[in-house]
Amino acid sequence: MPPTTNHLGQPIGFAVPDWVPAKPPPRLVMEGRWCQVKPLDVTRHGAELFAAYAEDTNGRIWTYMGYGPFETHAEFETWMTASCLGDDPLFHAIVEGASGRALGMASYLRAVPETGVIEVGHINHAPALQRSAAATEAMVLMMARVFDELGNRRYEWKCDALNVASRAAAERLGFSFEGVFRQATLYKGRNRDTAWYAITDRDWPALKTAYQAWLDPANFDAEGRQKARLSAFMPEARR
Questions:
Q1: Does 23 fall in a domain?
Q2: Residue 18 contacts residue 12 (beta carbons within 8 Å)
Q3: Left if phi > 0, otherwise alpha if psi is -120 to 50, otherwise beta: which for 179?
Q4: Which of 8, 37, 67, 143 could lock onto 30 through a cystine, CB 3.0 to 4.6 A?
């Protein structure tokens, strides 16, 4: 096994002797109980997403995005066609199971298969998706693909440090806070300090068990309301 210290006894990191580069994310549907996460299709999902986002009448969901809000359906679809059909970022629509409607988006981006690092971003949930089991399940499905299917070592979540809702969501899902990169970028004419969060493959087994317990049908009543919060199932150190 490769050494973990140099000739002076200084640490050089733990050995990863059997590392195999991760696979790039495929354009395949992720199936859950509450939702499906589907590769974004402008023709199939554009009108539904625009209508769902329009329910946010004050445009708050776009505050911390680098684009939007969009005044018209045509403007929205023009942006999607220009920005959302590539491989990185790889955009997905979050389709609610009960209604069959696309109610949100999320993407994989900045994938580096050689080192097994990938990020989740462009997360934007319409009001009808927010605080729902489908919203949580969509994030869990994307994590499961990252670690179980693709073999990544690290899954990152980054957001404006002022975005309290995004930071709370990352922490609720078990991402570890790693710091703030000050003056990391500019968007919409203003500064962004970027808060960094991550889950590693070492964290994943315990978190996966927590997600499975929370998503178990026994944890929901007949109206689909949770009986116990996700935090109740989290590893002790993350509660």
A1: no
A2: no
A3: left
A4: 37
Model's pTM, two decimal places?
0.93
Please indicate, yes or no, if residue 9 is contained in any of the structural domains: no
Return the CATH number at 185.
Answer: 3.40.630.30
The rounded distance, in Å, linking the Cα atoms of 179 and 160 is 12
Number of domains in the chain: 1
Report pLDDT digits (tens) over 26-40. Answer: 999 999 999 999 999
Could you give the CA distance from residue 140 to residue 169 in angstroms, rounded to a whole number?
12
Statement: residue 78 has pLDDT above 70: yes
Query: Sign (positive/negative) of CA torsion 182, 186, 189, 194?
Result: negative
Q: How many CB atoms lie within 10 A of CB 17?
A: 6
Is the residue at 7 inside a domain? no
**Any idea what DSSP says for residue 9?**
S
Q: Which domain holds residue 210?
A: 30-232
- CB–CB of 105/72 below 8 Å? no
154 phi and psi, to 5 degrees? -150, 135
Q: How far is it, in rounded angstroms, from Cα 225 to Cα 133?
A: 8
Residue 175 resides in a domain: yes
Q: Which of 93, 5, 99 is nearest to 41 (CA)?
A: 93
